[in-house]
Amino acid sequence: MSLLIVGTVAFDAIETPFGKTDKILGGAATYIGLSASRYLDKQNLVSVVGEDFPQEHMDLLSNRGVDLGGLQIKKGEKTFFWSGKYRNDMNTRDTLDTQLNVLGTFDPIVPENYKDCKYLMLGNLMPSIQQRVLDQLPNRPKLIVLDTMNFWMDNFWDDLIDALKNVDVLTINDEEARQLSGEYSLVKAAKKILGMGPKNVIIKKGEHGALLFNHKEVFFAPALPLEEVFDPTGAGDTFAGGFIGYLAKTDDISFENIKRAIIHGSAMASFCVEKFGTERLQGVDENEVEERLNAFIDLVQVEMAL
Amino acid sequence: MSLLIVGTVAFDAIETPFGKTDKILGGAATYIGLSASRYLDKQNLVSVVGEDFPQEHMDLLSNRGVDLGGLQIKKGEKTFFWSGKYRNDMNTRDTLDTQLNVLGTFDPIVPENYKDCKYLMLGNLMPSIQQRVLDQLPNRPKLIVLDTMNFWMDNFWDDLIDALKNVDVLTINDEEARQLSGEYSLVKAAKKILGMGPKNVIIKKGEHGALLFNHKEVFFAPALPLEEVFDPTGAGDTFAGGFIGYLAKTDDISFENIKRAIIHGSAMASFCVEKFGTERLQGVDENEVEERLNAFIDLVQVEMAL
């Protein structure tokens, strides 16, 4: 089933207690696409890069089935760049540098042959850009997933509230859920956010797993206890990519299947953090995914009836 | 099966964003006993209080099947008192006052008729006191659970390390596991701690659930997402009480049953935090426990095979 991904394609420079990288391939849409490619042969991408974006990165995406017809390449301009450093706990990071470059004037144009998409992943971007994508689609997709962050709440509150009205699944982390709702309790936060429009809210708690709420039900997916977290960059986007990739592949958006999709997303994210950037994600094979899904199920497996 | 609980019986004065209490009934052994009483008709207690400890609190414990033959009542002395204030996030608390009183000279004496205990819960206490209890038992209990905290690591490291050598299950929170092991990753921390003697380690993560490790396996029990956490005091002890109460009742210490016991302990703890002190714990009925156990199971239930 056709999946359209909208999000950043970028350069990242990352420093963790385990080492540092030069400019490497990054961006929300990159992680989403690589992760979703485990489930789909073909995905469409709307994004923007500068003239400095190398052919090898485009080939990597193409080889994974990511169609680049919607990737704008801006002559004479530079690709979005982010640089960050993780502290020793690996949960806190400081942004060292952000160069918006091509992202500063990004106008997302959805190619005609992408417009019938059934699954739409709106990666973390300015809410008005996310909305402009929605406005170009003649028919509402079967499922719209939107990711956002605190920066947009701080600076573009009204636009974000508008965009949320159209959303089937909002993915957000725990601190952002608290900020968006004004509630400390995540149960209360989820209820308030569901009142803003999204039919489902996934609250990502990093190493503490993820909570899924709709108006009637709640589900909790643990994170796999990992011996080493090497680089958390892109884990949330990798989660989103596995999540929507699985849903698009199975074409079933029941609550039961959304639960399964969260386990798939969590499994993909658990690979992502094992190496710098997209490196580990590129090397994952089918058996490893299967093994890790089983590990997720075993982790919480308990037979209560004696 | 006979359960012996060793721990504090105390007065607490608690302040949370929702209100404050005068001196109310508290102490690790109190919470453990009240929680375990859901599973057992009779439990033995070794502890100490002062002359100021009221009859009504002793009656409350007696009525729940807690035998007070091992409760020392020190004439002319005062009961251990702790006072604390929770911050708005309910995860951080500041100790306002600690008056050791009778606890300062506590010498735990195990009555003859307690010495054949099959299940032993060593609540959070000075490690040398925990060890002195072990030294009085002619036969090793079938299961020894020990709870501890960072204070003993800071001040009585060697005693704690000695006590850990004899333990079947160590319960500890995530920060304490990191301190005890010197490892940030909880997987690595658990491995190191298992190397110190305990056959199982339960790492309590509060609102993020609990992890169980032995040398071969790992299990994760979520915490129930609660709308309101009113007072977290005693939640860890209530967990321990439900945990060992269930194990003593079923008299099965297989890994599978330890997993079940964690769910029972988590369910009991989820009640504890809903009101101040032991209030909610006193009022829990059988149907409510059943309902909450089901909620725990449903929370992570997902059928992966399509």
Automatic annotation (TrEMBL), chains A, B:
The keyword Transmembrane helix does not apply. Pfam families: PfkB. Keywords: Kinase, Transferase. This is Sugar kinase. Residues 22-279 form the Carbohydrate kinase PfkB domain. SUPFAM superfamilies: Ribokinase-like. GO terms for cellular component: cytosol. Gene3D superfamilies: 3.40.1190.20. The keyword Transferase applies. GO terms for molecular function: kinase activity. InterPro entries: Carboh/pur_kinase_PfkB_CS, PfkB_dom, Ribokinase-like.
